[in-house]
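Sat 14:20. Reprocessing the chain from the morning session after the first attempt stalled halfway. Input below, unchanged.
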Amino acid sequence: MDVIGLLPRLHLLRFPVGQAYLWRDDALTLIDAGPIGASRAIADAVRVLGHAPGDVRRIVLTHFHEDHVGGAGEFATLSGAEVLAHPLDAPFVRGELQGPPPRFEEWELPIHAEAARQLPKGTPVPPAEVTEVADGDVLGFGGGARVIHVPGHTDGSIALFLPDERVLFTGDTVARSPVDGTVIPGVFNLDRPRLLASVARLAALDAEVACFGHGDAVVGDAATALRKAAAVA
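Finished this time. Tokens:
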């Protein structure tokens, strides 16, 4: 796993498939938790940054897909962190139900197959408890992180916007192309028209930094890149 500093209080944790983010205030917040087995790598990254796993107060999950929640239960057990998710995705995070599969575009199928091949095998350990958060809720980090419901990738996908810091965590609603670096709407969606409406909602925010579930973050004038992605879509 790679640990990449984006801002003095923000680090990207990159796994072979997917990524998570660590935000530092007096305590730490983890946004997404990587695939199955990621908890040890996350704990190592936290220690490298001068903290203990118990300093992570919360894990906010942007949606229920395995590459984002696979390590959540493991790391919550290790750290004691609270796990948060939207009510529409929370039953899948808890392991109570199996989440619906994406409705793939034909061109997405080989990409998805390759990504699935790289994911660790096994069954995730679900968190013991999941706190449900909804659109408009404000969380206690980053000066007040606002929860934004952005359905389309999954029904319960959320983004997080830190207005004081102008930092946006998009989850998989938006991505950055590994081919040419352009910012694009997310792929492997449950409902693409709803996803595009969600991209437009995020593009209306005054974000300076945008952190995606896949691909390099945009550090500087992220709002312009998001508006271009919405316009092209």
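The chain has a mean pLDDT of 95.
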